[in-house]
UniProtKB/TrEMBL annotation:
Domain of life: Bacteria
A matching Pfam family: adh_short
Name listed for the protein in its UniProt record: Short chain dehydrogenase
Bilayer-crossing regions: none
Organism: Liquorilactobacillus hordei DSM 19519
PROSITE patterns in the cross-refs: ADH_SHORT
Length: 269
């Protein structure tokens, strides 16, 4: 079944975006609004979400709703999905974008932070995917987009915990894709490199990482356009820029050289 192709036209489609208060999630929300979607923007910062939803309404000419959500809380997630379906209608697209990272040596990494990172980056995504997919499966239509990272394909020093969460997202998404395909639901994994967003205000204690990898830094608006353009297609993975996909394949073929490049030559953290 390929009912997800119906979603190529996003007019009046209900789309849920997590981590929508800033950065890539915010820009994905705006791009969806430009396509005429009804955007449900979710995050913890309600004040920021209300700014985002007002802009979405201007862009789409349709309603946009702000929903405060802590993705660490499974009950909040379950209630969110139910409330959206009851109050607005069927969720057609879910964008799991919420997440955070921290560049820190493994030996100094606080395990409480590691546990929190897995709850946000992995378990929250899994709960949202499951509860939303249960609704989509009844209609035999839907699209789920999981934002992972290049760090889930190529691990580097000071990214062990973050990379572990994104490796988990990739593995989960690959299996989820196979299970949901017969139900008319597509699953896309997005693997961006460094993006010029607030993400690094938490992730980078030095405050200089983006400047050291300037030639690789991308703008969230550009990635948002590419992500939204995949909805309604069978594309399984989007790695941006594509040079990282080439690097990943090289790493798999020549792991010893890959370790040298990732651990020494290209280590900018």
């Amino acid at each position: 079944m390929k009912n997800y192709k119906q979603l190529k036209d996003l007019h009046n489609r209900i789309v849920v975006v997590t981590g929508a208060s800033s950065g890539l999630g915010e820009q994905i929300a705006y791009e969806l609004a430009r396509k005429g979607a009804i955007v449900v923007a979710c995050a913890r910062r309600l004040d920021r979400l209300e700014v985002v939803t007002r802009e979405c309404q201007k862009l789409s000419g349709r309603i946009s709703v702000a929903k405060q959500l802590d993705v660490e809380d499974p009950l909040q997630i379950e209630h969110l999905v139910k409330n959206i379906e009851d109050e607005l209608g069927p969720i057609d697209v879910l964008v799991n974008n919420a997440g955070f990272g921290l560049m820190e040596d493994v030996l100094n990494f606080e395990m409480k932070t590691a546990e929190k990172m897995f709850r946000v980056n992995v378990l929250g995504l899994m709960y949202l995917s499951k509860y939303t997919a249960l609704k989509m499966a009844k209609r035999k239509r839907g699209a789920i987009i999981n934002v992972a990272s290049v760090a889930g394909k190529i691990a580097t020093p000071k990214s062990a915990v973050y990379s572990a969460t994104k490796f988990a997202v990739l593995g989960y998404s690959n299996a989820l894709r196979l299970e949901l395909k017969p139900l008319g639901i597509s699953v896309l994994t997005v693997n961006p490199g460094p993006i010029d967003t607030e993400f690094f205000e938490i992730a980078d204690k030095t405050g200089s990482y983006l400047s050291r990898v300037g030639f690789l830094v991308q703008q969230p608006e550009d990635i948002a356009q590419k992500v939204v353009s995949t909805i309604g297609t069978s594309k399984r993975e989007l790695t941006v820029p594509f040079s990282f996909e080439i690097a990943h394949r090289f790493y798999e073929l020549f792991p010893r050289i890959g370790d040298y490049l990732a651990g020494d030559l290209f280590n900018k953290k």
